[in-house]
Design brief:
By secondary structure, this protein is mainly alpha-helical. Helix content is 55%, strand content 4%. The protein contains 13 helices and three strands. The protein has a three-stranded antiparallel beta sheet. Strand 2 and strand 3 form a beta hairpin. It is globular.
Length: 289
């Protein structure tokens, strides 16, 4: 998984956990088998078991994906001669529409940043970058100075599976990132090994995902916004506003770094919801008493 698929440590750990869960089920049911001996009904019993333990349908589907990957490996390495996951059905997942922010709400959140502090200047640069380029929170905390190409208006982002992509960045984000770099970051006691990371804490180390989450939660609370907001909400808002503005779906997929366009298609559903609400609000057939 690390060498051939270039998966991150977190992804590898998640896949290993799936196999460990299957092992725990076989032990609990006193049905110890080798991978070659496991049959479809064993896996069906496993999925029923994890469901009864309270695992959500989304987690069940992800676990099944992990077991399928394990059997692809078993077949390649001649550990098993047949794949019992072929007919294993994953639970049907309801595609929920994520919360997103209006442009006015994003401006309200940004207006709550205290720019009189060094952290405030950094936080403004972070949020401007997240909304301007639709980055995942992991991509923000790992963004490096060597990945900034402001002269041509792009940043180089390392996404899931260590896949790189070039993403446009807006002039406002460039302005506040440069202010942070030249007025705040230069005064930090940067730790060894952290020199290339763009966003640093006051001790000169790169930020964690949890820190970004807490920064945003605090600003959202101050702004009086009651939606369930996380760092990912800015990514959703970036995509939603592009689709609402008429952007090409394939271009949005490229900017978000989605492997499959079906992942990006959820934003067309968001767009339809936006259109429906607009119709209800402004069409005379809907607005009349």
């Amino acid at each position: 998984m690390q060498l051939e698929r270039s998966l991150s440590e977190n992804s590898v750990e998640a896949y290993l956990n799936d196999v460990e869960k299957l092992t725990a089920f076989l032990q609990a049911s006193n049905n110890l088998k080798t991978p070659a001996e496991i049959e479809l009904q064993d896996l069906q019993g496993f999925i029923k078991w994890v469901a009864e333990l309270g695992m959500t349908q989304t987690s069940q589907a992800r676990t099944i994906s992990g077991i399928r990957s394990f059997y692809k490996y078993c077949l390649l390495e001649d550990v098993a001669k047949k794949d019992p996951t072929v007919l294993l059905e994953a639970p049907k997942l309801k595609r929920t529409l994520p919360d997103f922010l209006s442009f006015a709400e994003i401006e309200k959140i940004i207006s709550e940043i205290d720019l009189s502090t060094p952290e405030g200047g950094r936080n403004k640069a972070i949020i401007e970058t997240m909304y301007s380029s639709g980055l995942r929170v992991s991509e923000v905390v790992n963004l490096k100075l060597s990945q900034l190409y402001f002269d041509v208006g792009f940043i180089r982002v390392v996404g899931k599976g260590n896949k790189e992509r070039l993403v446009p960045i807006g002039s406002s984000a460039i302005k506040y990132v440069n202010l942070y770099r030249h007025s705040i970051r230069v005064h930090l006691p940067i730790q060894a090994g952290e020199e290339d990371f763009l966003f640093l804490n006051r001790r000169g180390k790169h930020l964690t995902r949890v820190m970004i989450f807490l920064i945003i939660k605090d600003l959202v609370k101050k702004a009086g916004i009651t939606k369930n907001i996380s760092p990912h909400t800015f990514r959703h808002s970036f995509a939603t506003h592009l689709i609402e503005g008429g952007a090409d779906l394939r271009a949005v997929q490229e900017m978000l770094g989605h492997e499959s366009i079906t992942t990006t298609e959820i934003y067309t559903h968001l767009d339809r919801e936006f259109l429906r609400k607009t119709l209800q609000k402004f069409h005379p057939a809907f607005t009349k008493e």
